[in-house]
Queue: 3 jobs
Job 1
Amino acid sequence: MIFIFLLILISAVPAFADRLSDMEEKIEHLTNELEELKMERTEDESKIHFHGYGELHYNAIESDENEMDMHRMVIGLTYSFTDRIILDAEVDFEHAAQEMELEFAHLDFLINDAFNIRAGAILMPVGYLNEYHEPPLFYSVERPYVQKYLIPTSWQEGGAGIFGEIMPGLRYRAYIVGGLDASGFTAKDGIRKGRQKVSEAKAEDLAFVGRLEYVGLPGLHLGASFYTGGAAQDDPSLGDADVTLAEVDGKYRIGNLELIGLYTRTDIGDTDKIFAATGQAVGEEQTGWYTEAAYHIPFSSSKKELVVFARREEFDTQKELSSGLTKDPANDREVTTTGLAYYPIPEVAIKADYEMWKDGTENDFNVFNLGATYMF
């Protein structure tokens, strides 16, 4: 019996060895597949980068109701299809997500340092703030008002163009984009309500927008922007409604002292026809400027910083009117803002400021603001 058992056992050994070999091959194959999947997942994860920002505001307005507002919460992502084709997009949930807006969504085709292509929903390269307006990047709770009423930040349009760095420190952007819609222009808000936000936007009129920047010296940032295009959008009652906006800005930091200045002017054609069609006495010339001084107080041996600032703004959305239209002095406004911003880390700022408003009617009022802001 023992002999028979040994014969059976010996005869079974080759079959067992074959099955063991098969199992080893399968395990090795599965292990390789798992490694490949892990590598693919790691590569995909490295292609996606999330970013965003947000800001909570408390506004105590003299002779008006106080307000608490989660003004913005923005979520964005950057996805690299390849090293040279990149998607960049942001969605803005405003006023505690009661309003949603596509901030931008564009494809970049990277060719070389001096010449690259961009297409999609693009932030207009006008002023230093419209493209880079994350709240910790400026010191007041609210954005400068010139960059609301004269440069309608955030301002995005659909289009395509080129960008790059011509020489060290000298950068440019130049795009052809959808034009504004003059039927939305107002005497108080200028061109702001003529933005179409790339939402089934009228595109009978296109526009050119460009910006040149120089950042070649430490602490210095100089910029100039130009926009021109029609805004009638094939509505003959609005005439041509051509819009031309020019802007210059500069920032300089020496030691702990930072100085900022901006001037902008907008000219609009056929404002008499816009008035006849909409009833809005839109200024054919609109101007605004501001200067700001900030002093940075660093905390020793840490990234904490306190910034004390003061800003003076003047802007008039009816600087000049077509003959026959009547100017409203209330649209000639001055704002002086003083305050401070505390940065426990560079990406987070707690702000407090005090605004003093005055307009051409000699009406004046004050606003106290608090803000909690972040970006990542």
Job 2
Amino acid sequence: MQNTLNLSVTGMHCGSCVRRVTTALEAVPGVQVQSVEVGLAHVAFDPDKATPQEIAASINRIGFQASIQ
């Protein structure tokens, strides 16, 4: 079963930021990246493998501020 999650991400400015956020999200078990653009990320995830808070934390750890929409 897959859930979806939209994240607002502050601190992103360019394509490099998009790549960093994408890489961080892809490293979370059970997460499938749907799209990432400056300021936004949309993922599908397996709730048995990751929580929305863990997914947001993966972005926060690399220096951005993610909040669940």
Job 3
Amino acid sequence: MKRWYVVQIYAGYEDTIQKDMLRRIEEKGLDQYFGQILVPSARLKKMFDVTQQSNGEQQLFPGYLLIEMELVPEAMRLVQSTPKVLKFLGGKEPAPLSQREIDRVISQMKGEVALAAKKSEFVSGSEVEISEGPFAGFVGVIEKVEEENERLTVMVSIFGRMTPIELGFNQVKR
């Protein structure tokens, strides 16, 4: 019985690995063990946008492929020996996804579930009040926003000089 499994791969090579895996399945004649191989991606829709323009495809899970397959040794070997494939999620005994999880991913890919582009609540040049730490109560201007690390560089006037201070998102009030 074919079930869905998650395979961790090198991020950025999803399409290449998908094509390579499909080619290898056909070459080895293991079609009977495999179903679909998905690179989960979806079109982003802007929330509350009158024009409904999309921002293009965005991968839902960068660095992962979803593979419908029977978990037999030949099929597992083929997947694991594909270049740039790291491992099955679940280790030596990969755990299949539930039908509910797969249905949700596929509905996101079809656009039935809207994904909103992440919008930063902090913008360079805006004023914030520091709420925690030794500079609590100071007001400064955001110079740099690091979304991935949730850090801000805020310029604060200390003794009449503008001084950069690095803070976490949780240390400031808008």
